[in-house]
Amino acid sequence: MQTLRKRLADICRRVAEKEFVSAYDGNISARAEENKVLITPSGKPKGEVKPEDFLLIDLSGRLLEGEGKISTESKIHLLAYNHRPEINGVVHAHPIYATTLAATNIDVNQPLFAEALLILGKIAKCEYGTPSTDEVPDSLLPYIDYAFAFLLGNHGAMTISGTVEDAYYKMEKLESYSRLIFNLELLGKKKTISAEKVERLYSIAESTYGIKIDERNKII
Ligand SMILES: [Zn+2]
Q1: At how many degrees (to 10) do helices 164-187 and 2-17 cross?
Q2: Residues 56-70: what's their mean pLDDT?
Q3: Domains and CATH numbers, the chain
Q4: Taking Cα atoms as reference points, which of 84, 126, 79, 68 lies closest to residue 102?
Q5: Ligand 1 centroid, distance to 92 Cα (angstroms)
Q6: What span, in angstroms and rounded, lies between the C-alpha atoms of 25 and 37?
Q7: Threshold 0.90, pTM exceeds
Q8: How much distance in Å is there from the Cα of 192 to the middle of ligand 1?
Q9: CA of 19 to the centre of ligand 1 (A)
């Protein structure tokens, strides 16, 4: 548990250094033993979070250990842990470009970059939900069983994975991909990969990269 606390604090520092959050934004969590979750406390800048600051909560959101307030955004973390036994890490942040796209009608699932198709899969574009209410977790429900990257309508982004480190790398990828989309939309001259080439990429994904892509994560 102590090691996990250190790993989480390290991810918090990286999220802050990358400016994926401002002020008190965002929350990071990881599944600890016996289906408990370690999560950042509410109202603490991510760059200042120390290993001992994380709260231990159960899968229904009850505080088990630690001092501090549980964020209302813990609901979207718990949604992922409750729906997906293979998910052990969740990063929620407000990176500039991903959050920009989350407040547009731009189609983010376009065949533009092979890496994004493999690492992010089909990005969930969630409807806006009123902060602190169940509207926020409810907006993720249609995608929670398969997606790894979520754009939260007019709010921010969330990435999930088997480890909190990989969830963080997915956030880095989502942000850089969003920046590329932003540039391409500005230029107005984008060139997409053909459907045939996308199919080919999917067909070699497992044998070449060891990435098994669920049908629901394919954009074509
Ligand atoms: Zn947020």
Answers
A1: 20
A2: 97
A3: 2-217 (3.40.225.10)
A4: 126
A5: 7
A6: 19
A7: yes
A8: 31
A9: 14
CA of 138 to the centre of ligand 1 (A): 15
d(C-alpha 189, C-alpha 183), whole Å? 10
d(CA 98, CA 126): 12
Q: How far does the centroid of ligand 1 lie from the alpha carbon of residue 152, in Å?
A: 8
> Distance, CA 94 to ligand 1 centroid (Å)?
6
Quote the CA–CA distance of 38 and 157 in Å, as a whole number.
19
How far apart are the CA of 45 and the centre of ligand 1, in A?
A: 13
- CA 194 to CA 200: how far, in whole Å? 10
β-pair type (156-161, 55-57): unpaired
How far is ligand 1, taken at its centre, from the CA of residue 128, in Å?
A: 11
Separation of CA 154 and ligand 1 centre (Å): 10
Give the pLDDT score at 1: 74
Contacts of 15 (CB under 8 A, 6+ apart): 21, 26, 28, 46, 91, 93, 168, 171
Centre of ligand 1 to C-alpha 50, Å, is 20
**175-186 CB burial, b ≥16 within 10 A, e <16:** bbbbbebbebee
pLDDT digits (tens, 9 = 90+) for 130-143: 999 999 999 999 99
